[in-house]
Recover the amino acids of this structure.
């Protein structure tokens, strides 16, 4: 539901940042290294940005938080081949999230 108790989001954020496959998502994609990224990906998202939104009370509900994680993974699928290191990490993080999210909520 839309209850404002965001405790499961903080717990999940801790686990995502520690995950072995988190490395592609810890910070915003560097547009100097990936100059086409901003044109292809209309709504960039990353774990640092999600942490800052949690800190600054920008999430109205757990589902808004969950949808930002899904945005991270959808952006990853759009830009990266499934079999690339970054593409594979995106699939792993999505599977981890969806299983763990059911346990937390
Ligand atoms: C998530 C993502 N989508 C598209 C391109 C790049 C990335 N992530 C990069 C983040 C910095 C390290 S890296 O440059 O190896 C990978």
């Amino acid at each position: 539901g839309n209850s404002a108790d965001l405790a499961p989001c903080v717990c999940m954020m801790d686990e995502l940042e520690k995950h072995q496959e988190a490395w592609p998502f810890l910070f915003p994609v560097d547009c100097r290294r990936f100059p086409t990224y901003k044109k292809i990906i209309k709504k960039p998202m990353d774990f640092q940005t999600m942490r800052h939104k949690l800190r600054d009370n920008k999430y109205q509900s757990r589902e808004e938080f969950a949808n930002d994680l899904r945005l991270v993974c959808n952006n990853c699928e759009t830009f990266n081949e499934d079999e690339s290191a970054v593409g594979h990490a995106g699939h792993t993080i999505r599977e981890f999230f969806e299983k763990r999210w059911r346990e937390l909520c």
Remarks:
- The two ends are 9 Å apart (CA to CA).
